[in-house]
Amino acid sequence: MNFNKISFRVRYGETDQMGVVYHGNYAQYLEIGRVEWLRSLGISYKEMEENGIILPVISLNIHFKKSAVYDDLITVETKLKKKPGVKIEFDYTIYNEKKEVLVLANTVLAFLDSKTKRPIKCPDYILEKIGDEGAGRT
Questions:
Q1: Is residue 85 scored above 50 in pLDDT?
Q2: What are the respective helix, strand and coil percentages of the chain, to the nearest 5?
Q3: Is the pLDDT of residue 135 over 90?
Q4: How far apart are CA 62 and CA 26, in angstroms?
Q5: Which terminal Cβ of the chain has fewer Cβ within 10 Å, N or C?
Q6: Residue 114, class by beta-carbon neighbours within 10 Å (0-12 exposed, 13-18 middle, 19+ buried)?
Q7: What pLDDT digit, counting tens, does each position of 89-111 carry?
């Protein structure tokens, strides 16, 4: 599956004095989306790291459309943009209960060997889980 959704409520501690989500928290929301996307494929981020693979973010783009506020139920929709090589790229849409788009975002991460910190290609077991269809499947 190259598409995943996860929903959760905005917590008070994630907001500023106006009750609006602090902009820095959106990067964490995207991480939740990525980790759950991997989990939906049966891939544990923790096990990947235990096997010597790390996945640092090398690019992060966020376009803010509307504010999320305290107690909003928000959904992070995560899509694999294209079949991974040395890098893996995701597109995200974050929206509220009214289906209003709050954020459009994109991240690029690199597969690295945790010991050498050198780039490696996407592991075969991840490519197999993604399947021949590559990205764009919903």
A1: yes
A2: 25, 35, 40
A3: no
A4: 8
A5: C
A6: middle
A7: 999 999 999 999 999 999 999 99
In a 3-state reduction of DSSP, which class is residue 118? Answer: coil
CA separation for the pair 42, 21 (Å, rounded): 31
- Indicate if 91 belongs to the active site: no
pTM given for the model: 0.90
Rounded CA-CA distance 50/54 in Å is: 9
User: Per the residue annotation, which of 16, 71, 72, 91 is the catalytic one?
Assistant: 16
121: left (phi over 0), alpha (psi -120 to 50) or beta: beta
- Which two three-digit tokens encode residue 16? 């500023």
Residue with the two structure tokens 């939740």:
32
Show the domains of the chain with their CATH numbers: 3-130 (3.10.129.10)
38 sits in which H/E element: helix 25-40
Give every CB contact of residue 45 below 8 A, 6+ residues apart in sequence: 35, 38, 39, 55
